[in-house]
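Mods, move this if it's the wrong board.
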Amino acid sequence: MSPTAGKNVDIRPATGKLGILLPGMGAVATTFIAGVEAIRRGISKPIGSLTQKGTIRLGKRTDARTPLIKEFVPLARLEDIVFGGWDLFPDDAYEAAKEAGVLSKEHLDELKDFLSTIRPMTSVFDQGYVKKLTATHAKKGRSKRDLAEQVIDDIKAFKKEKGCDRLVMVWCGSTEVYRSPSAVHASLAAFERGLEESDAEIAPSQIYAYAALKCGIPYANGAPNLTLDTPALLELARKNGVPVTGKDFKTGQTLMKTILAPGFKARLLGVAGWYSTNILGNRDGEVLDDPESFKSKEVSKLGVLEHILQPHLYPELYGNMHHVVRINYYPPRGDNKEGWDNIDIFGWMGYPMQIKIDFLCRDSILAAPIVLDLALFMDLAQRCGMSGIQEWLSFYWKSPMTAEGLYPEHDLFIQLMKLKNTLRYLRGEDLITHLGAEYYD
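Not the wrong board. Structure tokens:
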């Protein structure tokens, strides 16, 4: 076996049903659910999903071993997935999808019989964390501990009713207002006291995460919320042996940055400035119209370029870069977000150049396959006995979580290599390095 060979890990089989629980059943969640059902019915293809369409090279390039990822590692089958979740509004998945305006009438009509059967459970809601929305379908409780116990009861009831063998939870809800960790987040004991006392610094997303981790359920954080980035919840994840990952789905404008910025750095082209603005009109845009919620998103978006370009190592190229991010709520655009980027670069002898990007993207169409991949990979991680932060899933995040003391990797291509090498490791295959496996034979 070569020096770069992985370890053949004992992976529990993906038998029975996998329940995917979704806090927030709006545009992203309903587009994801509808897409999976359309694929199962043979009326759509899993475009954009690494778990369904992606391949993985094994061994030498001359070996011609390139299986599909879903055939290489034992992932749950789409046929074995069932859906559940919570929302601020009582609409079933069909009505919510129709309101979101992402999918065509033709697709909604074809899938109405299925989507109409998926009704959200009552949500955990705190107006102070999402100021632009008002819940009509929310839990009441004596304390935040009581609300957490209600979510745990929901989880147990769903698992029993649907006959699930395993569960995962993926946050698809709105962006909460920006918060830094406080004393209540310093330890699990402090957090649980805070639940009893209904500490104002405990956000709804943290209540869902706590409930999931208490039940031994993997949790993925699809928004820039603080949620898992605290000693308290990471302690609980380690204690219960549960994988966690996050944060903030990498979809439109940030996806473009993690593709382009590595190219500028590879060619050692300077960047004087990168101005980014977005217009979107969905529920996420409405929420982000609040400055405190926008602050959470801004922090998530701004960190990408600094980590990729490493201005401390290349001060002449990136040390004086002006990076600006704006998001504007524009209702006529709906879910079809538009991201404008003006990039001022410079090259040989300091001569300036410009790049303009106008990305007319569909936010939920880009996010839906990410939800699928994360659910399936987190279930795999759980069956492999992997717990704590799953840094190998950084590929999917604007602001990847890392172990304490490590900087996050934002380069999309390095992220993909790390993901695939993790899969190779799990199956005892040679890891692919810059030297290539052929050098070790």
